[in-house]
Amino acid sequence: MGWYRALADGGPATPAELVARAGGAERYAREWLEQQASFGILTVEDGRFTLPAGAAEVLTDERSLSYLAPLARMFGAAAIQLPGLLEAYRTGGGVGWAAYGTDMRESQADMNRPWFSTMLPDALAGVADLHAMLGRPGARIADIGCGGGWSTIALAKAYPLARLEGVDIDAPSVELARRNAAEAGVADRVTFHHGDAAGLEAGGYDAGFAFECVHDMPRPVEVLAAIRRAVAPGAPVVIMDEAVQDAFQAPGDEVERLMYGFSLLICLPDGMAHQPSAGTGTVMRPATLKGYAQDAGFADLEILPIEDFGFWRFYRLTH
């Protein structure tokens, strides 16, 4: 509805003032404002409701690392699919990414955007040899499973001498990535393709990245093998995925609990929708990824010294 943003941009409002700014029905606006105030998200004085600065950052600042508003769209998109999820749990089938629709696709991109835009350049700059390679004039970099393109765009901005290619199997995500790249002013150095890693030019890339997507893939070994073929001999292959524990333990920590929640509703059903499937799920532990990498022909993996990067861990696959 844009009501949070109307309060953040325009200041305190009565229900009538809020709908005058952002539209909607006044009776529903009053109920919503009172509910939000009852939770302590909004404050109220003399009948006018205020969105405090801290809450405004979490709910409206698209560039803040604290931005969490997209989670509402994400869980809403999953809730719509509950009948399909129930059937998948009964039969062993799945619910594919395309079925979750625009809310899921855009919320995923919006959640990751501030981390890629704000943190990724410095994170990679802290790995000296990787940073040097990416900064070489004419370096050709592939971003597999690019989604809305924010990881590709961040790499392009951090390494202006490189050329970036993003690839994703979800056609609407590719179109979203193209629009985002154009708006970010990097479309002259970034291209996006609808397809999978098997379509990448053999030996044509100086580096390959896969950001938060390997755990979703029904056939991760095949994809990793395709990435290995696509990069030059010895070229870096970097996987960013969830920073879960090395082994299952109960009770789990907060990251573990959150990731199992995503897995139950989204990631595992997505992976299971395309058979045969590895059925990885969001909680992909380091040993699992290492097994996939070795089966794909890589020698080993190492955890890169990148810390405090949200819920994620960076791996480099060696070959």
TrEMBL record:
Gene Ontology BP terms: methylation
Domain Methyltransferase: 141-234
InterPro entries given in the database record: Methyltransf_25, SAM-binding_MTase, SAM-dependent_MTases_sf, WH-like_DNA-bd_sf
GO terms, molecular function: methyltransferase activity
Coiled-coil residue spans: none
Alphabetized Pfam families for the sequence: Methyltransf_25
CDD domains the record matches: AdoMet_MTases
Protein name: SAM-dependent methyltransferase
Origin species: Phytohabitans rumicis
